Amino acid sequence: MDQDRQKKNAARAALNEVQDGMVVGLGTGSTAAYFIQALSNRVHEENWRIETVATSKESAELARSLGLIVKDIDEVSAIDLTVDGADEVDPKLNGIKGGGAALLFEKVVALRSKKNVWLIDESKLSPRLGAFLLPVEVIEFGAQQVYRTFVHMGLHPRFRMQNERDRKKTDSGHNIIDLDISAVADLSQLAEQLKSITGVVEHGLFLGICDKAIIGSDPIKEIERPQRQSADQRPVPTA
Ligand SMILES: O=C[C@H](O)[C@H](O)[C@H](O)COP(=O)(O)O
Fold it and tell me: What pTM was estimated for this model as a whole?
């Protein structure tokens, strides 16, 4: 089954996770967009009262255009469930995100969510993370200096470009530097190192955050984390 069909399948299956009255975090990207569409259909069919929180301008606009209520994250007291896509996922449900440059808001929302569900197609499952380049969000000021640090760390950095001349800007106006982490042995250590570099805002390693992955194959497969962490047991977003 092609990847697009799998994404749609997973998005439909994720509706089983949603209940009337929930506050739902909306991810970003093509798979999350299928979920937003499916959620909007369900909300209108069932006349549900659902509030959403978006992880990007793109997802907020899509959700609003489909008649969903989109709140600012600071207007809600809790997020019951967040449904998002991912770029690469290992068997322990660690993942790489940020292929669509939305990793910062995605991580803020995910770490405040009671449950995180990722929707993927089979091609994104990987025995070990590192096939996908790791996106790192850095402030524009001194970005070239941070880039040099990544060179010294042997991470073969490259600035994400919008076009031939301009660097890609995130929703927060930051730059993205993509890193080759295929040779890195300890990803938790790398995550800590990255967070300790001044100028780095966030990285796309999502370790211990996802509770369930839904793979949109035929039949649908699900991988669940055995012990779920509640939102307040998760590391705070600065960790
Ligand atoms: O920044 C973007 C996000 O992390 C996406 O969720 C991720 O890139 C997957 O996107 P897609 O569903 O389009 O493959």
Answer: 0.94
